[in-house]
Amino acid sequence: MTKIFSVLVLLSVCTLPACTYIDSIFNKDASSQNTDQNTLNQGYAKFEKESMTKSLNKYQKYYAEGEIVANDNYRFMVPTNFSAVDIVVHEGTSSDGDLMTAHSLDGMALVSIQKYQGKRGPEIGCDSVVEYQKNNPEVKFLKKPYFVKTSTGSGCELFLHYTKNDGLQYVSYSFTEQFDSMHMYEVSATLQYPASYENYILFITEFFKNTYSPEVQLILKHMNKEYAKGEKILKKKEYNVRLN
């Protein structure tokens, strides 16, 4: 099975047990593809839950499908055929913010959500992020990056193709929103199967549709370019980048 990776932030903040686990997701025996998928998923889910609950540290918690992620920043039910690991960061640790990453049991989809303290200024630094990616030889733009600022917050959208030094290739969609409180949320996804920009939007929207968080629900609306009545759009732009 071809490996897939999430956005770089996922690997940059995970601790050793979670990193080892994330790596193992994408290295399952290819021969298992010939096994009945439902049986495989059930068996793997049981094995994963038993092994993960033993290996995670005190800041991490494992959630199986149907369970509620007990994080008030993005409280939601894990969808069918998915499992999730939530990393709750406390004061005094080196990481910045809470991070949840979930993967489908067949290894075809990976999604994450992170909340952290905003430190990029009132427009979340979309200009500088895009400029950095333009100069990154590993990155190709699949869609022009998009920035929007409304009376409730500002968002930055990226849809990128990565080619790592080891030849690994993957596509990542991310949408980052900064609220007036300077709190920032980022949702992102990587899909193994061929998927368009619209597929990524639909996938993330469906995944988080039952989230008990007004901030996340607002992010989903802004990601879909939906705005509440009376919500003012103060600024928006597409960046002029070379598409590949």
TrEMBL record:
Q: Which UniProt keywords apply?
A: Signal
The secretion signal range is 1-20
For the keyword Signal, the answer is: yes
Protein name in the entry: Lipoprotein
| Classification of source organism | Bacteria, Pseudomonadati, Pseudomonadota, Gammaproteobacteria, Aeromonadales
